[in-house]
Amino acid sequence: MTDQKKTHIEKNSVQETLIIPLFGRLVCSEHFPHLFSDPEAKRICDSLDCDFGAMRKKMESPAGLFGALEVAQRQYDLACEVKLYLKEHPKAAVVNLGCGLDDTFRKCDNGQCRGYNLDLPDVIEARNQLLPASDREENIPCDLNDFSGMDRIDASHGAVFFAAGVFYYLKTEDVKKLFSAMAARFPGAVLTFDSCNRRGAKMMRKTWLKEAGITDVNAFFSLEDPDGIRSWSGNFASVSSKSYMRGYRDIYKDVGLFHRLLIRLCDGLVNMRIVKIGFGRN
Length: 282
What we know:
41% of the residues lie in helices and 16% in strands. Helix 6 links the parallel strand 4 and strand 5. It has a 7-stranded mixed sheet with strand order 5-4-3-6-7-9-8, sandwiched between helices. A two-stranded parallel sheet has the order 1-2. The chain is built from 9 helices and 9 strands. The protein has one domain: Vaccinia Virus protein VP39 (Rossmann fold), CATH 3.40.50.
């Protein structure tokens, strides 16, 4: 029997960018098995023709491991919000904004809900190859600044939207427009996402912004106080937030001293939060 042909990943390609958080979840499950288990991340990585050596070396440094821990914890947090919404709306639409190769829908699938994964066309092309849609799941190519892609979402039984590490790369005005349009279009739905303050967002975007030649850093999305979102739209029925690393389950005592220090910095210095907006009913 011959080995199954692996998917080749080109260096410096969209696919390589997408597998970084995926590989982070794998590394996190290897180093923190008492906190995370991600067999799907392992399955996908094992199916790739990719030299993970340099990536693993960087990610298994103390700081790199914290990055992997952040990626896995973020998925855990957002999945908690999705599952909470599905308890009351079991047939709801579960919508992943800027999905990349994230498989949160499958981790939350109750057998009744429907999943929609939205991202740019080249990303969806890569996703269709590496993580094709399952039953009750659809991969939708679209730009988040073009709301027409949302016409394909059936929210007749409710909808829970989530975004992981996405809005930092959008301008604040565009994020406001997106949130307001969603609130008007999907009354009763919920949107949840990760955020940090301007200091943290600058650190997170530094490399990407430099490569893109963007200098107006302050125009991009960040939140000093998540509660300030309330003023963005009259259709926001509620806004709440929790600590990114400690709000859904407190992992502080489950990691070493260095990572505990970084958790405290995340909570204090850069105000990393998971934010939830409830859209009001018209």
